[in-house]
Each structure stands twice: as C-alpha cells, then as structure tokens.
Amino acid sequence: xxxxxxxxxxxxxxxxxxxxxxxxxxxxxxxxxxxxxxxxxxxxxxxxxxxxxxxxxxxxxxxxxxxxxxxxxxxxxxxxxxxxxxxxxxxxxxxxxxxxxxxxxxxxxxxxxxxxxxxxxxxxxxxxxxxxxxxxxxxxxxxxxxxxxxxxxxxxxxxxxxxxxxxxxxxxxxxxxxxxxxxxxxxxxxxxxxxxxxxxxxxxxxxxxxxxxxxxxxxxxxxxxxxxxxxxxxxxxxxxxxxxxxxxxxxxxxxxxxxxxxxxxxxxxxxxxxxxxxxxxxxxxxxxxxxxxxxxxxxxxxxxxxxxxxxxxxxxxxxxxxxxxxxxxxxxxxxxxxxxxxxxxxxxxxxxxxxxxxxxxxxxxxxxxxxxxxxxxxxxxx
Length: 382
Fold this sequence. Notes:
Elements: H1 10-29, H2 40-52, H3 60-76, H4 86-97, H5 101-123, H6 128-205, H7 210-237, H8 250-258, E1 263-268, H9 272-302, E2 306-315, E3 318-325, H10 337-348, E4 352-357, E5 362-369, E6 378-380
Parallel strand pairs: 1-2
Antiparallel strand pairs: 2-3, 3-5, 4-5, 5-6
C-alpha cells in the first residue's frame, strides 16, 4: 500500500529556509541603519537555525529548543529584523507535528513571555502592538503544527483500517477456498467410497455390472481432481474466487448421488429459472454447496436410503431450503467441519442454518433472502 505523501524532503526545507533567512535579512539590513551590522556571527546564527531543523526526526525537542535559543540570541545581539524567525516557525510546526505538543506549547509560551518582556523594556507601551502580533504569529505556528499532527494521525488510522480490511478479506478468501476444497474432496470421496462398496458387492454376485461401477468411480475421481486443481490454481495465482456453481447444476449433483444407490429427489416450489434469476450467482453457489454438503453428510453418516431436497417455498422474499433423510440422525454427535463450513457460508451472506431431528432421520433448514443479499438458509445434516 502506498504511503501518504508527507510534503517536501527536509533537506529542501532546510535549503530554502537558509536562503530566505540569509538573503532576506541581508536585504532588510540595508533599510535598518541603526541595527547592529551583519557580521560573521550573525550569518552563523541565521544559518544555524535552518540546519538545526535536520534534527526533527531524531530529536524534535532538542531541535525546537536549540532553534529558539539561536533565534533569541540573534535578536538579543541587536541584529536587523527580517525573516530570521522563519526557522523558529518551522521548528514549532515540526515539533508539534511530531507529537511533542506539551514541549512545543511550553517553548512557545516562553518565547511569547520573552517577546513581551523585551517589548516592555525597549519599546514601552508602543512595543506591545508588535509584541502582540509576534505572539499571535507564534500561536498560529503551533496550531498549524497541531493540524499537521491531526492530519497525519487520521491518515495513519485510515491506512491501518485499510490494512486490516485487506487482511480480513484475505482471511475470508482463504476460508472460502478451504470450504470449497473440503466440500469437493468430502463429496467426491464419499461418492467414490459408496461406488467402490457397490463394485465390491457386484464383483461376486453380478460381474457384468462391475465395469459400469468402476467407470463411475473413474469418472467421479477425475471430476474431483479437476475441481481440486482449479481451486489450487486459484490459490497459487492468488486470484479472486468467482462463483460458478448454479442451481442448474443441482440435477447433476442429485443424479450423481442416485448412482450411489440412494433414492434422492429434488423438487422446486415455483419456476426454477425465475428463482435462479432472482438469486444471482453468489447465492446460487451458496445454495449448491448447502445441498452438496447436506447430501454428502447424509451419505456418509446417515445410513438412510432416501434423501429429499426441496427448494421453496419463497416467503417474504426469502427462499426456504430443506434437505431431509430417513437415516439415524446425529445421535448426539457434535457438529463437524462440514456443518460448520455450511453455517459459515450461509451466515456470510446474512442467512441461517437450522439442524432439526426428524422421526426418523435428520433435516436441515436454510432460509435465503431473494433480494440483493442472501438470507437465512435451512438444510440438514451435520
């Protein structure tokens, strides 16, 4: 992330301040015949103020104190008026911006007192007018430094918040990818396991059906490898995940489950095409994963023979999803990674998941709003 612009380099500021103080004071001295003549010490003091600004990072307090002393010495020795206080103004701004607020205000107050004291001793009441102007000028310098400090703190806060958002987005991205990999691997291995069991059963009883069973295993493993490669490719290239799963792919998922020997049904309450259009791609991908995870867990843990998937009805712009089976249910087992991932998916788009015990079996209920955001889901099985 690019850092915020902090202004010109300090070296440029020092050179410009030195040129202004030396050149400007030399010109001003020609109009002040009664002032002390500029000599080597005067030029040294005029040059020392800008050079001390180089300490702004390592020792801002020492910088301000030294500049104040150098500037005070210049005027105490009776040298001509001019832009000599420029380095003091810059030192006040830099020290205040560097969060040395108490010290900056203290030095400024001390300088103001010194200015008024000098004015009363050398100019009487008439000297109070320029002294007041000088005091106001010094206070304005502190306030400018406060504004610079506040602006830097706001920029730092914005940068920290932007970095936190970036890290949070990266964590969410990795979590979404991990859920996708879990769903693909868990579902594919479950299907392969079931089909392998069928193949072993057919090997002795019906050898002619063995080849189709093995081909189904080969197809399922090939498809899962392709999906895993795609997900790992996304991770390797650090590319954004784009939801490609749609409701139109649910029949393929159901057909694959049926090949495992289960009686799986899919029903829509309403027009499937119109429902897909209202859901949008992100919510369709979430619904697909909900059904996939529910079916996978039913196959792996249920022991039942029937799974019923129903999308609908849509009530108050919310799509209700139900996945039920006639297996043994959770039987008190804690939620696994699959159900946790399912909840995270749905809750990530504003929805909710409710696992219910049926008699017999288990069900999941998911509610998904049909508007611009996803709502709460319903579907079943840990």
